[in-house]
Design brief:
By secondary structure, the chain is an all-alpha fold. 61% of the residues lie in helices and 0% in strands. Residues 51-109 form the J domain.
């Protein structure tokens, strides 16, 4: 008499475990992907080398060519003529100038 009760309990436990595993799988399947964590906070009033490197996505000690390449890539995506923000473009240009030390730039005014 105990054998049918034990078998019924085992079947019920297996069914409950299966239900829970399906629910967990559905939650995992529909969960949003983990996104890359970006720098939290806005721009500083005075540009620093750290902020400039964060904007361009390069190291503070990056070579001039790498800085120019990162600047070009970001400006293509954020240029005001292509619908980007002029403020962001200004900050990207300022970051490039900060990291390369304004080499080759002259003030007209």
């Amino acid at each position: 008499m105990a054998t049918p009760v034990i078998a019924g309990a085992a079947i019920a436990a297996a069914a409950y475990a299966g239900k829970l595993s399906i629910e967990v799988f559905q939650k995992w399947k529909t969960a949003p992907p983990r996104l890359r964590q970006f720098y939290k906070g806005g721009f500083q009033s005075e540009m620093s080398k750290r902020e400039a490197s964060l904007i361009l996505g390069v190291r503070e000690s990056a070579a001039e060519e790498r800085v120019k390449e990162a600047h070009r890539r970001i400006m293509i995506a954020n240029h005001p003529d292509s619908g980007g923000s002029s403020y962001i473009a200004t900050k990207v240009n300022e970051a490039k100038d900060m990291l390369i030390g304004k080499k080759g730039r002259s003030n007209i005014f």
